[in-house]
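As noted in the main text, all predictions were made from sequence alone. Below is one such record, for DUF397 domain-containing protein.
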Amino acid sequence: MTTEPLNWLKSSYSSNGGECVEWAPSYASTTGVVPVRDSKQADGPVLMVSADAFAGLVTIARESAL
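Prediction:
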């Protein structure tokens, strides 16, 4: 992962007070790897997934009653 600071974007579900995630779209668009983290733990671990895996996670989230 880059040593440059990432520009994180909160999930659209973040405003509802639920369990939220953030991702770094600019990093993803240049590398094809999507960094994902817990929005409540900005200094915590970062999960790095392929763009295809991230798309699958988004599909699952949209289809489930979260």
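The chain has a mean pLDDT of 85. Residues 29 and 35 are 11 Å apart (CA to CA). These features were considered when defining construct boundaries for the mutagenesis experiments described in Section 2.9.
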